[in-house]
Write a structure and sequence with these properties.
The complex is a heterodimer of chains A (114) and B (114). By secondary structure, chain A is mainly beta. Chain A has no helices and 12 strands. Helices cover 0% and strands 52% of the residues of chain A. In chain A, the strands form 3 sheets. In chain A, strands 2, 5, 6, 10, 11 and 12 form a 6-stranded mixed sheet that branches. In chain A, β5 and β6 form a beta hairpin. Chain A is globular, with a radius of gyration of 14 Å. Chain B has no helices and 11 strands. In chain B, the strands form 2 sheets. In chain B, strands 2, 4, 5, 6, 9, 10 and 11 form a 7-stranded mixed sheet that branches. A 4-stranded antiparallel sheet of chain B has the order 1-3-8-7, with no helix packed on it. Chain B is 0% helix and 51% strand. In chain B, β4 and β5 form a beta hairpin. In chain B, 36% of the residues are buried. The radius of gyration of chain B is 13 Å and the shape is globular. Classes of the chains: A mainly beta (114), B mainly beta (114). Chains A and B meet through β5, β6, β10 and β11 of A and β4, β5 and β9 of B.
Chain lengths: 114, 114
């Protein structure tokens, strides 16, 4: 069965500090991987995605993520966090063989302190 | 470009009442889905559809019905609401996974069952 694990429920970082949010997946084939961000009271917005090719992908708002097949990971990074990055972050894996079924992790809540 | 539109945004029901959450997309996406979001549990897939006339169950389908009579619309029906269905519901759509692939989300519908 497919699953996505985000081991960190909540992370607090200082503004300007670097950030890494962890994501591990369990999937039998090459996964389609995504990171979404949800601001309070809002829907989810796509930050970046990985389908194939270069394992380091760039997204919006200065985020990047690296796909590591050997570790079954797709960690999200940002070199310098801004106060506006405070939000909930979700990792997701998609399947292609039965249609577009997506599975989400439980999310990581990010707090940014001045 | 409206994207994915959900109505209503807020709803309060009494136990045993029925209601329908509406979802419409104007992007001609084949895939549509419903998720519920609960604290600490991330997003869980309720039902999904890969095209008009085709629906299937996700992780937590009990208590919910769906139909897909057109490409644009994918309503979610609660036949007899229960307090356990208090949640925030998101509708999402996507094109074929091998294309742009990512999910586009509505703004959510907050349902309270008393």
């Amino acid at each position: 069965a497919q699953s996505v694990t985000q081991p960190d429920i909540h992370i607090t970082v200082s503004e300007g500090a670097s950030l890494e949010l962890r994501c591990n997946y369990s999937y039998g084939a090459t996964p389609y991987l995504f990171w979404y961000v949800q601001s309070p009271g809002q829907g989810l917005q796509l930050l970046l995605k990985y389908f194939s090719g270069d394992t380091l992908v760039q997204g919006i708002k200065g985020f990047e993520a690296e796909f590591k097949r050997s570790q079954s990971s797709f960690n999200l990074r940002k070199p310098s966090v801004h106060w506006s990055d405070a939000a909930e972050y979700f990792c997701a894996v998609g399947r292609s063989n039965t249609g577009n079924q997506f599975y989400f992790g439980t999310g990581t809540s990010l707090t940014v302190i001045p | 470009n409206a994207g994915v539109t959900q109505t209503p945004k807020f709803q309060v029901l009494k136990t045993g009442q029925s209601m329908t959450l509406q979802c419409a997309q104007d992007m001609n996406h084949e895939y549509m889905s419903w998720y519920r979001q609960d604290p600490g549990m991330g997003l869980r897939l309720i039902h999904y559809s890969v095209g008009a006339g085709i629906t299937d169950q996700g992780e937590v389908p009990n208590g919910y019905n769906v139909s897909r009579s057109t490409t644009e619309d994918f309503p979610l029906r609660l036949l007899s609401a229960a307090p356990s269905q208090t949640s925030v519901y998101f509708c999402a759509s996507s094109a074929r996974l091998q294309g742009t692939g990512e999910l586009f989300f509505g703004e959510g519908s907050r349902l309270t069952v008393l």
